[in-house]
TrEMBL record:
Taxonomic lineage: Bacteria, Bacillati, Actinomycetota, Actinomycetes, Mycobacteriales
Record GO terms (molecular function): ligase activity
Naturally occurring in which organism (per UniProt): Mycobacterium kansasii
Keywords: Ligase, Membrane, Transmembrane, Transmembrane helix
Transmembrane segments: 12-33
UniProt-recorded name of the protein: Long-chain-fatty-acid-CoA ligase domain protein
Amino acid sequence: MTMVGSVVSTAARAVLFSGLLSPPAPVALLRLVRELYRGGMNLYTLLAVAAARWPDRTAIIDDDGALSYRELQSMTESIAHELSDSGAGPARRWA
């Protein structure tokens, strides 16, 4: 086996055993479908899907501590509402 083949094999095993590809519970599946329908496929939707699937898993760790996917989604939505309330929007210049 080549070095590249070994790396790919190791990565594939890691993904399979991580639970990322395991089927979600019915309630989680409904949340996933709702988020995909609501937002289309974009960075926020990927975050919303992760928050629906693994709400309490760590999404980000920095010097201030860790944030779960649920917390990150909540903070992202708060920032989006603040921007919208201040007049930001699609095809609008904002400084």
